[in-house]
Amino acid sequence: MTRTPEVQPPGANVPGYLLPLSILATLFCCLPVGIVAIVFSAQARSKSQAGNYAGASQAVRRANISLIAAVVLGILTIILVFSLGFLGVILGALSGQGGTGTGGGGTTTAQVTGEEGSLRDIIPERVGDFQLQSVEDLSEGLQAGAEEAVTATYRNRDGVQLTYNVLAMTFPEQADEFQQQQVRAERKELGLQVVSEEPFEDEYGDEAGTVTVLEGEAGENTVTAVLWSEDNLYEEVVSEGDAALDFYEELPY
User: Fold this and answer.
1) Pairwise CA distance, residues 56 & 78, whole Å
2) Sign (positive/negative) of CA torsion 80, 82, 85, 89?
3) Is 28 within the bounds of a domain?
4) Is residue 221 part of a domain?
5) Is residue 197 part of a domain?
6) Mean of pLDDT over the chain
7) How confident is the model at residue 76 (pLDDT cuts 50, 70, 90)?
8) 126-127/130-137 β-pairing
9) Which of 18, 73, 87, 215 has CA atoms 20 to 30 A from the CA of 147?
């Protein structure tokens, strides 16, 4: 006589993986949906033990759906986070390469100096109509306490020559103080007068420092000096006539 095996109704046996996987999904994938999966897993077990196999079967189905949803949402979240991080790296690289502020602000100069570590690297070959002639270390700047100081000479096609000095100080306060000292010195030693002193903004529209313009007579010529500081950098342009102003406005950073 053949014995017919007992057939258990759906929901009689609750899968053992449901509750552990639901807990893991809650911890590592998606907390809200994972909690739902835990609730349905617990309901499936309790209903099965109570003999409510139909309710247990329905709870198992809902627990599986919640578990899958938690895992999928967790994976999508990870992909989104990595995508945003990668996009931020790309935008940061593009901003570092193109980082140009408005003319004459010197805004990106401090950033480039910090990355490349040399003032010579940020001296442009051409500024407007002016072509770079030479770049040398500025010993007076080093004596004044600068970590690095360079002086660059430019000349345009009309033969007008100007001097562009850049000093990298240790702290922004030193750059501001040195600018004030230079304004006093050029007023006293060269007889220049302050004709304007205005704040300038960086590429983000934030006030980054103050630019001071001085003018005066030196013999038969008018001398113009433009002085400004931004972050830890002090910069100045000196020329005959108003070439210094044109140079300042055409600076690529």
Assistant:
1) 33
2) negative
3) yes
4) yes
5) yes
6) 82
7) very high
8) antiparallel
9) 215
d(CA 42, CA 27): 17
Residue type, position 226, single letter: V
Average pLDDT for residues 93-101, to the nearest whole number? 56
Long-range contacts of 145-154 (CB under 8 A, 24+ apart): 145/169, 145/170, 145/174, 145/178, 146/178, 146/234, 148/118, 148/119, 149/119, 150/119, 150/120, 150/123, 152/123, 154/127, 154/130, 154/247
Residues 51 and 173 in one domain: no
**pLDDT tens digits for range 40-67:** 888 888 888 888 888 888 888 898 898 8
Boundary residue ending a domain (43, 70, 97): 97
What average pLDDT does the segment 222-249 reach? 91
pLDDT band at residue 154, thresholds of 50, 70 and 90? Answer: very high
Q: Identify the CATH number of the domain in which residue 153 sits.
A: 3.40.1000
Domain that holds residue 113: 107-250
Q: What are phi and psi of 38, to 5 degrees?
A: -65, -45
Same domain, 77 and 129: no
pLDDT value at residue 189: 83
Name the domain count of the chain.
2
* 4 found inside a domain: no
**In Å, what is the CA distance from 204 to each residue of 107, 145, 199, 250, 251?**
10, 30, 14, 19, 17
